[in-house]
Amino acid sequence: MKYFSTRGAGQLLSFEETVLAGLAPDGGLYIPEHIPSLPADWQTAWKDHSFVDLSVEVLSLYVTPDEISKLELRQLVEKSYSTFRHREITPLKKLTDTTYVLELFHGPTFAFKDVALQLLGNLFEFFLKRRNQSRALNEKPEKLTVVGATSGDTGSAAIYGLRNKANVSIFILHPKGRVSPIQEAQMTTVTDVNVHNLAVKGTFDDCQDVVKLLFGDREFNATHRLGAVNSINWARILAQTVYYFLSYFHIKRQVADPALEIQYVVPTGNFGDILAGYYAKRMGLPIGRLGVATNANDILTRFWKSGAYEKVDTSRATTPAGETVPAAGASDGKQAEDASGVKETLSPAMDILVSSNFERLLWYLAYDNAKGADDEERRRSAGRTIADWMGKVKSDGRVQVPTEVLERARDDFFAERVSDEQTLETIEYYFESAKYIADPHTAVGLYVARTVAPSNSPHVRQIVLSTAHPAKFSEAVTRALEGSPSFDFERDVLPPEFKGLLECERRVIDVEGADVELVKKVIEKYAVPAVAQVGADV
Ligand SMILES: *Cc1c(COP(=O)(O)O)cnc(C)c1O
User: If you take atom 14 of ligand 1, which residue's CA is the nearest one?
Assistant: First the structure.
């Protein structure tokens, strides 16, 4: 299987090159040259598979065995998920007769990003080790320097994914004093020699600007081989397709109904988690429409209402509130906005202005809509369309897709927006009715599932993806439940792993300002030398 950029069907890359590159040089995202279909007997052959078994099967459809053999793939997957606390890796819990939550937060940092980042770290290590082993002794070994900025959540999952990996150093910038105490503790208590936390005097945007400058600096980039682990990395999407299969089989085992329809609702920010479900569906997993649940940062919900993908909601200025966007979230008007226009919500991991993975879905929509004699022609046409649409988003802040494209998008998805108030109500509702404590991101999904999705059919089962443990977002959970006499945060929510965390030893480098030269000095000083010995086993 080869991969190419959404903005042009030009050069084809191997899986390894795709994973190490992250973003394509033309600004596009890598996608597989075709979506593999499932083996004819998948329904029976895979039905009792564990998470690891399913990972091996699904991943090997996208990774050619001459790149990674099935045995090596199994070893990588086993190692990646051995860090999870739950035997089933991503267990499914039943909340009501028709509603389930798929808990994705049993990894080392208690958030769903672990599912992908635990694997990504091992893939990096595997590829670099293999490259270095085939090198002559006098050649310089290859290494990777991962640099990223975080407002809290992604940083810790990336650090736990890359800690202690040979030939990889990781530098995570966070705005000093502006991440939650538990998130700061999660990041800075990892004391492996290849992990570096930079507490930068400034805002999250300042940190992000510094990272962008570093990636734009060709010389620095070439010397240190900068790598990114953000959600556009193809391996992350691929790793996430697995739990759609696992949960599908789980329901199939429990519900004998031949007319059964399984519907997923996904709390969404950068569109990575739900995109994995779309790939599963296109591969042939028989599931219903996918529900996109957003908070007040609702660029995706607005797209599914109007067909316009636009950073700023221009419809609200010209039409009465509630006409193009329904009542859900109508009370969000007075939310705090930062300079870029991102609104601060109770579900901060979904506070985005644009959704970086949405371009991948747009490519498939453009491809399905392209008029071409053959596949090759339609692919080239889709690449041109995406380059055009993304160019418009960049220059005008918006693009309007043709009606047929919007209709196609509505065949596979629906989208709704959820306010902070509705998020809190939902946390309370499931605590009172099902004794289940959802984190605010999961609650955004649960709200959409309960109130909007067509759950009145007796044949429908809804699976809401649960993206974080409630202890990570104590403020929202406590606000929602403090009125309940039977609720006790320490007893009901706080996992033992968090209890001593605030007191653990920390390692953090203070950076006196959001200055790219200061950050470069830190990287130059601490980037670990690559492992040089041929055959070295680390
Ligand atoms: C990253 C994240 C999301 C959003 O996932 P996307 O793949 O960006 O759509 C939702 N919830 C939590 C807790 C997250 O960390």
Answer: 349
Q: Is 229 inside any structural domain?
A: no
DSSP, collapsed to helix, strand or coil, labels residue 536 as: coil
Identity (one letter) of the amino acid at 479? Answer: R
Residue span of the structural domain in which 389 resides? 238-315+344-481
* β-strands 308-310, 398-400 pairing: antiparallel
Q: Per residue in 296-349, pLDDT tens?
A: 999 999 999 999 999 988 776 544 443 333 333 333 344 667 667 889 999 999
Residue 267 C-alpha to ligand 1 middle, in angstroms?
7
Among the listed residues 521, 312, 265, the one whose alpha carbon sits nearest the alpha carbon of residue 418: 265
In a domain, 28, yes or no: no
Residue of 241, 350, 356, 444 to test ligand 1 pocket, by largest number of atoms within 8 Å of CB: 350
Place of tokens 């991101």: 441
Question: At which residue do the structure tokens 């980042």 appear?
Answer: 117
Residue for token pair 């709200």 = 447
Give the closest residue to 288 by CA, choosing from 253, 324, 234, 251. 251
Q: Which of 300, 244, 278, 264 is nearest to 418 (CA)?
A: 300
Q: Which pLDDT does position 458 carry in this prediction?
A: 86
> Coil, helix or strand for 452?
coil
Q: H helices within 452-500, ranges in order?
A: 474-481, 489-492, 496-499
* pLDDT above 90 for 397: yes
Within a domain: residue 426?
Answer: yes
SS3 388: helix
* pLDDT over 90 (residue 138): no
pTM of the model: 0.93
Cβ partners under 8 Å of residue 73, min gap 6: 56, 59, 60, 63
Residues with CB under 6 A from ligand 1: 111-113, 153, 231, 267-273, 349-350, 441, 467-468
Catalytic residue among 2, 70, 94, 113: 113
Rounded distance between C-alpha atoms, residue 454 and residue 464, angstroms:
14
Q: What CATH number does residue 424 fall under?
A: 3.40.50.1100
pLDDT band, residue 456 (cuts 50/70/90): low
Number of domains in the chain: 1
R_g of the chain, CA atoms, integer Å? 23
The answer to the question of residue 450 being in a domain is yes
Looking at the DSSP assignment, which residues form a beta bridge with residue 460? 261
Which residue, 163, 170, 118, is CA-closest to 144? 170
- Rounded to whole angstroms, the Cα distance separating 166 from 158 reads 15
Quick check: is 201 catalytic?
A: no
